[in-house]
Amino acid sequence: MxxxxxxxxxxxxxxxxxxxxxxxxxxxxxPGSPNGSAPTGSxPxxxxxxxPxxxxxxxxxxxxxxxxxxxxxxxxxxxxxxxAEVFRGFADPSLRRRWFRLPGRSAxxxxxxxxxxxxGETARNVFVSGDTEExxxxxxxxxxxxxxxxxxxxxxxEVDGSTRWISLVTVELADLPVGSRLTWTEQYTWLVxxxxxxxDAAHLRGGTRLLLNxxxxxxxxxxxxxxxx
Length: 229
What we know:
Elements: H1 13-16, H2 21-24, E1 69-79, H3 83-91, H4 93-99, E2 110-113, E3 120-129, E4 132-146, E5 150-159, E6 162-175, E7 180-190, H5 198-219
Antiparallel strand pairs: 1-7, 2-3, 3-4, 4-5, 5-6, 6-7
Helix pairs in contact: 3-4, 3-5, 4-5
């Protein structure tokens, strides 16, 4: 992801003495001007105006940040196991690491989980594609936890030190006649969208679906297993 650079120019008094346009500018003919003749009757020992030269025009405005993109989506996923088993997939660090990991090699992946209200989760990895290398990070904080029922947390996604988006996620678990259902609701604010942001939103939704498929493979491995013949 490209980072914008702001250029800041500074006027140096020394620079104006070394061949700058100020050296070749004609004297101001107005009486009392700094480079004109003093008016008749003025005091020869009057101090010079200490104020620096005013800029020729208004200062350039800083580049504005892209407009944030807001949206939300919801996904449902059914399991053949009880909701307590699905909840363990979020709360147990050994299970969580099996399905939640940022793209990249296992050797560079980092993960820390403190599953409690006020605690958080941190994941990092380095993603390499051809000549491109991206440093990814995901940081979350748990706001509300009801065992086997609900998890509410906020997370921020970072690429190369820049926060791309921030989301509020609500995970709800309910019983089914056989098994349980997970409902994932995510409300996001995309801070650095690509174009109009439509592709970003589609990728986020699709990536979340793939992530939850990993949860299924971890806590409910028999769900999609073909029967033996």
